[in-house]
Protein: EpsG family protein
Organism: Ewingella americana
Amino acid sequence: MPLFFESTLLLFYFVISLGLLFLSFISILIKNKQLDFLSFLLICIMMTCFYGLRPSGTVDTKMYLDIFKQLAGFANFPYGVGFYILMKSIKYIDNTNTGYVFYSSLFIVLFFALAVFLLCKNMYYKSLCMISLFFSWSMLDLSANTYRQGVAVPFFLLSVYFYKERKFFWFASCIIISLSMHWGATLILLLFLIAMFFSRKIKVLKLISISALALLTVSFFINFNFSELAASSPLINQLQTVFVGIDLLSKINSYLGGAVDGANFYEMTSLQRIYFTGEIYIALIVCVIFFITKKVNDPIMLSNSFMTAYSFFILVSLYGIVLISMTWFIRNFYWVVPTIPILYMYILKYIEDNKKKNHLPILSFYCIFLIAFSCDTFWRAPIITVSYL
């Protein structure tokens, strides 16, 4: 049962979110960019309040608060310089627990809002994209729990935009900021560059897309244990000779095979597996079928915006699927989950421009599905229980 039935505050947010979703829907129907922008701003305010006015109940938030209280020089700081500057900025503004929770939430919403605004530029789909992010339980975890990764993700989305626009100085700047927030962005950068290599090799990209969808489907039932194979790869031993002075083997083994109860995909029940991979799986079904049914000269296949975002989504998804047997596997998908609503907006805009008769029913179905899916995932997430109940 959705948790807003147990809390007046959550019910208030649910009703407000429905109203803002309706405004987003109307702004698309009447093609009004001003109404879309107003809805976009209101959604950002709601998200900031939802994340920022919560108690500090999650495990990672408590850990960050302990670091925040003792924050001094960078020498003893356990994370990257970007995250240190962010924490130091918040501490300068408000040196309290509630101040950290609120301003950290404000910053992450602003960063995601900027990414959505640019990636959906010249479209009246910005507010629908933003409310789709709000209804994502993965986004909830990134904002209210795994914050360090969460604040690195929007900068990677911004780098995707600047790469598409061939603004390489800003691309490099956003990549550096993302790397300074979370070391995991290093591998995602490599995957992004590989994705850009394949972005114009349509036949190969279609094969990769089908393989990713098929592999995730089969992985529900069969554990290929690729993460253990990766951890024992001879390549890791060769890398250890390069990174002298760093116990690379133990770090990689901890990353790929660390044992945490409840964090392993194959220790979960069938329903839990569906819950934790539902966003990615549904997106793969929709986006892959859409992509492989399009001809090479189709307008959307010639769209730099769609092809850049789609290629990135597929390659990172495939990476997450291959390592699905590792502990905290879901955090590999977190890098690309915020790309999903952006792809949906591109697809909806394509349908509006090329198949006008289908646009209204598909847009309506999307909004209804968004509500229904969020009631079964976002509004039942354990993080909400910890933070609000």
